[in-house]
Amino acid sequence: MKNLHIVAAASLVTCIQGFAPVQKQQHVRSAPLSVSALEPPTLAAVGSNSDDRTPLRQGSYVALVTPMTPTGAIDLQQLRTLLQFHLQAGTDGLCILGTTGEAAVMTMAERKAVLDVAVEEVKGKIPILVGTGTIDPEHVKEQTLQAIDCGCDASLVVTPYYVKPPQRALIKHFETMADLGLPVCIYNVPGRTGVDFLPESIGQVAGHPNIVAVKEATGDVSRVAQIQDACEKNGYKRDELLLLSGDDGTTDEFVLQGGHGCISVTANVAPSAMHQLMMSALKKDMDDVKRINSPLTNLHRDEFIEANPIPIKWAVKRIGQIDSSYLRPPLDELAPEFQGTVESALRDAGLI
Questions:
Q1: Residue 162 annotated among the catalytic residues of the structure
Q2: Cβ 289 vs Cβ 281: under 8 Å
Q3: Is the distance from CB of 191 to CB of 217 less than 8 angstroms?
Q4: 188: closest CA among 210, 156, 231, 212?
Q5: Residues 122-181 pLDDT 10s
Q6: Mean of the pLDDT values across residues 72-83?
Q7: CB of 83 within 8 A of CB of 286?
Q8: DSSP string for 43-95
Q9: 42 exposed, middle or buried (CB, 10 Å; 0-12, 13-18, 19+)?
Q10: What per-residue confidence (pLDDT) applies to 313?
Q11: Which of 67, 149, 264, 303 could be 75's S-S partner, Cβ–Cβ 3.0 to 4.6 Å?
């Protein structure tokens, strides 16, 4: 898997703190801080990313919500609390400023403030994967360079949405972003973007030294073998890329079929269970997978009863990890008629 490696099965039994992946190439709550109030000196980067990256690895990455106050300011203190919650629960990696994190409605200054907090809290402990993808390649570059400056470990780059680029243009897009120097996780989610980056195309870019992973969110677990076949066809190892499921409902089977982990919405409220689920699936322990995943089944489904991240942000508040489930427009808080459904799913999962 390039210079990444699959952790031996014996080490999977231990907590995430025991992982030691091979290096890849080259609190007391205070008043919420509104990013808009930050002075320019505060926005200076707090990290360097030249020689200090934590490689992406197997396991459960949380697609983290961004806590906000009831007036819509980003609550940086609660963000710190959430990050510590995930460290203590055994979350294997952090995926921040993605769809679930409402990154599309944040300014560059707000993004920097969020990334600086993430680096301060978890840098060197778990990988920091930051969403930098959008429709305009120049904006992708701007966000990726910011992530490098802040000290993040890798970028999650989604296929440009709405404009439906052909496969050759997608190949060029991902290679161009990888040329910036930050390891790239390709994000394929055709249900949101309207374009599918096909396994054959993924195989063509697999040899780029900075393209290291794929978040596959089609829900089609056969994509695991298809991507691995495409890598092999293009002269690369079958496990050249870290394959991460982006669909909680099929994540267990995705990993049992040869995937390496997940970027999970469910992990916002069940981080320990999702970590354990991934460890068992990596060991191909089907009985344990069923035991762990069965209580989560309704949650995997009902956290999408309205558009993500509406239900999951309400759920994170319901379990007491944040004070407000506010979402910035054009989204809105979970409709009252759906709250009972999500609460029931949380109860089935033993989370309340």
A1: no
A2: yes
A3: yes
A4: 156
A5: 999 999 999 999 999 999 999 999 999 999 999 999 999 999 999 999 999 999 999 999
A6: 98
A7: no
A8: GS-----SS--PPP-SEEEEE----B-TTS-B-HHHHHHHHHHHHHHT--EEE
A9: middle
A10: 98
A11: 67
Residue whose structure tokens are 């195309």: 201
| pLDDT of the residue at 72 | 96
Please name every residue paired with 59 in a beta bridge, in sequence order, or none if there are none.
261
Q: Write down the catalytic residue from 2, 123, 215, 317.
A: 215
Sorted by sequence, the CB contacts under 8 Å of residue 210 that are 6+ apart come out as 25, 178, 179, 180, 181, 182, 183, 184
- What is d(CA 178, CA 186) in angstroms, rounded to the nearest whole number? 10
Q: Which residues contact 272 (CB under 8 A, 6 or more apart)?
A: 89, 90
Contacts by residues 69-74 (CB-CB < 8 Å, ≥ 24 positions apart): 69/32, 69/34, 69/323, 69/324, 69/326, 70/324, 70/326, 71/326, 72/326, 72/328, 73/32, 73/33, 73/34, 73/35, 73/36, 74/32, 74/33, 74/34, 74/35, 74/106, 74/110, 74/113, 74/114
Amino acid at the residue 127: P
Task: Report which of 185, 152, 184, 118 is spatially closest to residue 50, judged by C-alpha positions.
Answer: 152
Quick one: tokens of 190? 């055709």
Catalytic residue among 112, 123, 187, 313: 187
Average pLDDT over residues 250-261: 98
> Are residues 260 and 244 in contact, defined by beta-carbon separation less than 8 angstroms?
yes
Residue 350: which region, alpha, beta or left (left: phi > 0; alpha: psi -120 to 50)?
Answer: left
183, 213, 266, 305, 340 from 337: Cα distances, Å:
42, 38, 21, 11, 7
* Residue 136: C-alpha distances to residues 29, 99, 139, 333 (Å): 38, 16, 5, 28
% the chain with pLDDT above 70: 86
Question: CA of 99: how far to CAs of 22, 246, 268, 290, in Å?
Answer: 29, 11, 13, 28
- Identity of the amino acid at 263: I
Residues across the chain: 352
Q: How far apart are CA 124 and CA 73, in angstroms?
A: 28
